[in-house]
Recover the amino acids of this structure.
């Protein structure tokens, strides 16, 4: 049981020593600066618009970070051959997959928490109310979205030969599913059979990543999402993440390590 | 007494994916056993199948047929590796970690409690003479220092069996001497060492028994002194004879 947290800790150490995080913190500073500027203008319309842009920036940067860092984890272990002393210990390939997932997910969670904290503090300073629960809910759902994305990229990293091609393919798939996946049922209605069934089937099989996007609720200042809905969405994300991790383990188990 | 390492009729084939290419047999019908407290030298020219055999023992490669076990446990079970230490030929470690962090990571993998891990890390860093640089990242180390970190990580779980793949490769004479000293010390502590090397003089000095592989097959196995008595020459000459090397005639 010590192996998985130990592996996750190594991933975290690698990330903060590789200075990937600092790029994101600079972006965070940019977000804060934009918000402060909107605050100076004292225009609610502009402030709302800037908030929307900031949230979009948070989504883009965390997705880029999640995909970029996860895509290189297992290929780097194989290329640098650090996988050999590791697997020579009582460590299974399942431990490696889960440890890498946990490390990347925690790292993204820390970055995400910083972003939302900055955004929440600055927003509440000119909105004159602290909507901590709304931000917490948005953060949680966003983190769940990242769990699915990270698990998918980890699966891709044992399938595709190069980490750059994996990152590109996964990014296209995730953005495609996020933007189009939720509308496929509408597309299916206007199509003849068997396309209708086919498209409907894809609609139900694809993970509905758009469900995890609570940006609008933060911008238009509506109430909270029901906790039960949040819990169900979290279970849904956990199921997809588990599926991709299982697939990653199966593929990694069969993968020959070039010694 | 049950052997520590047991290999029975091991065969490893590498299938070539290219059409019309024959399957390469890396190890062919290898059987050998290593007993507790022995220092066993695993010899052979490049491509003889030494590393493949070690990879089977470490669970990196699956055997096509035959069996291999460590402490009586099939090598395919991760628990078989609980009591072993492995030093690869090259230094394959997380270079962004310090020596201390690397050892702590592996201690955690083995489930060693923190207080015990602290003691072992101090002792091992002293043993491999890296105490002064324990807080420096491994990427700043010389090759010899990296190899010594490797030796320390191989010993972190106080293993009963050490598998060393060319442990002195690329080291300077002092580094080699230190590695030899450590192997000798481990032998005195009753540890079992299974190692491959091209340094036959070194093998002759530290090994109790040796096995010589050629083209995947076991050519000879026995105690070093008995083999030298039988062939009436040193280990290097025995090795050359067995692999069929013909010395060029002098003009």
């Amino acid at each position: 049981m010590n192996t998985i947290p130990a592996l996750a800790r190594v991933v975290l150490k690698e990330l903060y020593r590789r200075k990937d995080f600092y790029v994101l913190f600079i972006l965070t500073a940019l977000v804060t600066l934009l918000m402060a500027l909107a605050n100076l203008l004292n225009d609610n319309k502009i402030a709302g618009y800037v908030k929307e842009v900031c949230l979009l920036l948070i989504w883009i940067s965390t997705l880029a970070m999640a995909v970029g860092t996860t895509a290189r984890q297992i290929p780097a272990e194989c290329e640098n051959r650090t996988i050999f002393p590791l697997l020579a210990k009582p460590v299974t390939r399942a431990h490696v997959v889960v440890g890498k997932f946990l490390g990347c997910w925690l790292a993204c969670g820390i970055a995400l928490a910083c972003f939302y904290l900055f955004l929440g503090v600055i927003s509440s300073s000119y909105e004159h109310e602290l909507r901590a629960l709304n931000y917490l809910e948005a953060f949680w759902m966003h983190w769940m979205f990242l769990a699915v994305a990270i698990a998918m990229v980890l699966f891709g990293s044992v399938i595709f030969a190069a980490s750059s091609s994996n990152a590109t393919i996964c990014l296209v798939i995730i953005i495609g599913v996020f933007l189009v996946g939720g509308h496929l049922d509408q597309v299916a209605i206007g199509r003849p059979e068997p396309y209708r069934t086919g498209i409907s089937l894809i609609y139900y099989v694809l993970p509905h990543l758009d469900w995890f996007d609570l940006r609008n609720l933060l911008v238009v200042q509506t109430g909270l999402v029901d906790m039960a809905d949040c819990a169900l969405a979290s279970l849904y994300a956990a199921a997809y993440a588990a599926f991709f991790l299982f697939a990653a383990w199966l593929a990694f188990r069969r993968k020959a390590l070039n010694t | 007494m049950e052997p520590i390492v047991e290999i029975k009729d091991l065969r490893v084939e590498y299938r070539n994916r290219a059409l019309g290419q024959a399957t390469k047999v890396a190890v062919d019908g290898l059987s050998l056993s290593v007993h507790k407290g022995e220092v066993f030298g695993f010899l052979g020219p490049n491509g003889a199948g030494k590393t493949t055999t070690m990879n089977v023992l470490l669970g990196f490669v699956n055997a096509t047929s035959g069996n291999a076990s460590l402490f009586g446990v099939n090598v395919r079970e991760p628990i078989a590796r609980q009591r072993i230490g492995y030093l690869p030929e090259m230094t394959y470690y997380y270079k962004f970690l310090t020596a201390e962090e690397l050892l702590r990571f592996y201690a955690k993998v083995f489930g060693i409690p923190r207080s015990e891990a602290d003691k072992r890390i101090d002792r091992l860093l002293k043993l491999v003479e890296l105490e002064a640089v324990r807080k420096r990242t491994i990427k700043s180390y010389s090759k010899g220092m990296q190899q010594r970190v490797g030796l320390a990580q191989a010993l972190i779980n106080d293993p009963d069996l050490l598998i060393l793949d060319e442990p002195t490769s690329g080291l300077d004479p002092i580094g080699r001497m230190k590695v030899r000293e450590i192997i000798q010390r481990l032998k005195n502590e009753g540890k079992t060492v299974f190692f491959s090397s091209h340094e036959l003089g070194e093998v002759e000095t530290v090994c109790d028994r040796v096995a010589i592989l050629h083209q995947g097959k076991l050519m000879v196995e026995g105690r070093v002194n008995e083999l030298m008595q039988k062939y009436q020459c040193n280990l290097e000459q025995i090795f050359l004879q067995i692999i069929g090397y013909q010395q060029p005639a002098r003009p």
